[in-house]
Fold this protein.
Amino acid sequence: MLLSRFATVPYPNWLGLKVKKLGPGTASLSLKIEKRHQQYQGLAHGGVLSSLADTAATFAALTILPEGTDLVTMEFKVNFLAGVPGGEIIAEGEVVKMGNRVSLADVRMLNSRDRRLVMTGTFTMLNFPAARPETAKR
């Protein structure tokens, strides 16, 4: 059900994000960097990388979020550790704490070619009762 939900979210699909693996409290997503993802120096734009990381954190949390609950990112901090000129990158999200109202997830972003760490991030999410029944289904 969560994979079909991912398929309906416009922005991640427009970017070209792909789900590689989902598990309890974890999500691995990938993105093949294209010209449209680059900033003026030819590197992947930080906003694109942040979007990938945010989506990995969100879907990691959705795998263990209680039924009838939804969430939204309320804060995040990322550290860019290396430029990404192209190729495929992988974001691995893991829930650190699933609270009643606030959850926390960490994300590691790796270059798929050599598994080099290119970004880390911490994401704080607000959990709330789902407003629409279709978003509460996992």
Remarks:
- Strands lie at 18-23, 26-33, 69-80, 87-98, 102-111, 117-129.
- The helical segments are 2-7, 10-15, 46-62, 133-136.
- Residues 46-62 form the longest helix (17 residues).
